[in-house]
Every structure is written in C-alpha cells, then in structure tokens.
Amino acid sequence: MLVGGFAKKFANELEKRNGLTPPQKYGKTYVRTHDALTFKELAEDMIKSTGASILYHTKICGVVIEDETFKG
Fold first, then answer.
1. What pTM value is reported for the model?
2. Helix (H, G, I), strand (E, B) or coil at 24
3. Could you tell me if 34 and 54 are in contact, meaning their C-beta atoms sit under 8 angstroms apart?
4. What is the C-alpha separation between 2 and 14, in angstroms, rounded?
5. Cβ(35)–Cβ(59) below 8 Å
6. Which positions ≥6 away from 2 have C-beta within 8 Å?
C-alpha cells in the first residue's frame, strides 16, 4: 500500500493515464502492474515540468564547481 508523498502522487498520475492496473493477488500479497511506456512518459513530463533538462545517452566525466556552485 502506498502511504503518501511522491509515490502516491506518481501512482495517481499513472492511474489517470491508464498506466496502472488495479491490485492483483500475487501469492499472499497484492501488486499493481504498470505500463513501462506510460511510466517513462510520466517521469519525463514530471521532470520537464520543473524546468529541468534531460540529457539522454550522455556520460558525465567530471564536474566543474566554482565557489561551491555547479557550473557544468
């Protein structure tokens, strides 16, 4: 069971996009299966809504910091 916070918000958004199944019995517990593409699209939308940029297929080799501020 999701109690709250980010996980609950994410699950609610997945439900709105029909990307999350109702609880399904799995052994002695219940699980909810998500659609992988819907999950990725939602995660991307949530990140972009903050104004952040997503760098796909990139590798970070080092960090440039000046006066305790990230520069690149």
1. 0.73
2. strand
3. no
4. 13
5. no
6. 8, 11
